[in-house]
Design goal:
Keywords: DNA-binding. The chain is built from ten helices and no strands. By secondary structure, it is mainly α.
Length: 197
């Protein structure tokens, strides 16, 4: 029911829902909780956004869009393709690891959050792949990368690596410092993104 160009009242509803989801989780949040936080009647939530499930979809969609915008901005930093990819990767990983909603949901209700972030996360991952393809195409337009027909495959591999690192931040690699993230990106992410072996 919502669009990316939501009005202020709808944004207030989504902000209230996000706060509630972060504090008590999606399962325990009610439409009444959201309405109370937004300072409106619950019928307004239904009219503006829809059911609780639709509110969840709208909040997750908006958070995904925010991440993609952050990726787009981060990918403009640097004079070379490698610099742009390293910076964008570092910013995105910091964003994901520090994302209050994702972290809180995994801690509070893993049984519902994990499917949304894995088997039920196709739309979110597809959006990330699309944004990554656009980033690669922009690098071609900027004269930093040679055009290739495998951009969708490269983008999907990159998104899947980032997704895996988000879901399981540490096994063997210590990526807790920005310098470690940058070194990882330069060694593993840049070759995939650039198509260099």
């Amino acid at each position: 029911m919502t669009s990316s160009n939501s009005d202020p009242a709808t944004e207030r509803i989504l902000d209230a829902a996000l706060q509630s989801f972060e504090e008590i989780g999606i399962r325990r949040t009610t439409i009444e909780d959201i309405a109370r936080r937004a300072g409106i009647e619950r019928v307004t939530v239904y009219r503006r956004v829809g059911s609780k499930d639709e509110v969840v979809v709208a909040v997750i969609g908006r958070e995904s869009a925010r991440l993609i915008l952050e990726l787009v901005e981060a990918s403009k930093v640097g004079n070379t393709f490698d610099e742009r990819i390293v910076h964008a990767f570092t910013v995105v990983m910091r964003h994901l690891w520090g994302h209050a909603l994702a972290n809180r949901l995994i801690a509070l209700e893993p049984e519902s959050a994990l499917p949304r972030l894995t088997t039920g996360g196709t739309d979110v991952l597809a959006s990330a792949v699309y944004a990554t393809v656009a980033l690669l195409e922009q690098s071609v337009a900027d004269g930093l990368l040679t055009a290739a027909d495998d951009f969708p495959a490269r983008a999907e591999v990159l998104v899947r690596i980032i997704h895996s690192l988000m879901m399981t931040p540490r096994v063997h690699l210590d990526l807790s410092a920005d310098e470690q993230l940058k070194a990882f990106a330069l060694r593993y992410i840049v070759p995939i993104a650039s198509g260099r072996s």
